[in-house]
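Notebook entry, structure prediction.
Reason for the run: the old model in the group folder had no record of what sequence produced it. Starting over properly, with the input documented here first.
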Amino acid sequence: AATLTLLDGAFFKGKALSVSLLTPPPFEATAHQAAETTKNYAPLSQRIPLDTVSGKGVTTVKIPPLTPWGILVVEPAP
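New structure, fully documented this time:
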């Protein structure tokens, strides 16, 4: 696991942030075959919302261990 600190002012004019992680789900051959057939690859990733702590112009988020990869998604908070 790792802790990441983001400067709020660097994102969305300083608005509050929402952070999530896109990761691959456990491998399933049938899911990969279906994705290839339908060209719908969305089921081959899962989105995990991450808890954040904000204050003093920064947002801190803990990133869980990645196996084998992940994409951090930073958006304005709803």
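Summary: DSSP finds one helix and six strands in the chain.
The old model has been moved to the deprecated folder.
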